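quick one: N-hydroxy-L-asparagine bound model?
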Amino acid sequence: MTVTPRMITTWRFGAEACRVGYEILRTGGSALEAVERAANVTEEDPEVSSVGYGGLPNAEGVVELDAAIMDGASHRAGAVAAMTGIRKPISAARMVMERTPHVLLAGHNARRFALQNGFPDAELLTEKARSRWKAWLEERLAPDVAHFEEPDRRSLRDEKSHDTIGLCALDTSGNLAAGCTTSGLFGKTPGRVGDSPIIGSGLYVDNEIGAAAATGNGDEMMKVCLSYRVVMLMEMGRSPQQACEEAIRYLLRKRPHHQQHGAACIALSPTGEIGAAATREGFHPPDRAWIYAVSQEEEILVCEGVYVDP
Ligand code: SD4
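yep, here:
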């Protein structure tokens, strides 16, 4: 039986990735392929300053990338963390999955693995990102969640200064896949790894239940294994939308003194139902609204997701 394919990605900038991923699905490509190739679109876009090439650097001006991919059909996963000097990190993550018995390679050795597997050595810091970092240094911003807006830090923020792309795909064979790729938090402590390459936190998929991916403050979301929780709630009978809302509510309940941090998740079921929810605080709607992109038959819709109150 042929399943109607579907693709969902986080953020407005994810719309182009969503379109590319959906096209792969529509023409019979696998969910895994769609997630990887769609993520590559964002990773290679220097205008997206929170993912891949052109991403904003850590406190020392070095771009460190986190990425992961998970295949619902085989329940395999691969990831790279705090990797420098390699473009298309989600493709390196896929190689970790396919060419090693491991799930996650980190830092210097993730980079070595990528180089040994044919990825070219690349400069990831663009001039634009370098000057943002210099301005950040001058303003002596705390090495914290620079992309979560606070009034006195506004000058360095805009729609392009933040956010992981998370992706979930359902292919015509009924297989699901999920992915996540990011340069992490701007000005982060060197070596800091967020939720994105952590299976169960930044992403999770079970072919029989559903797929989920997260974006927001990984240091918070990791504490509740947000994506695993979304899928677990779907297993308990919640719709993807109910599961996303309930998982965010759980995070807010567990971390009552940290409500200012943004957290958001998307989900996709094996029947193509979607979910999307975010904390009300942290992304500061309406100007920093919680946006996702989703395929709807042949169209790509850009939608504002549901906000969850504590
Ligand atoms: C991280 N979750 O490294 C990522 C960043 C992100 O919206 O998604 N920001 O914590």
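Residues 147, 162-164, 182, 184-185, 194-196, 215-218 surround N-hydroxy-L-asparagine (CB under 6 Å).
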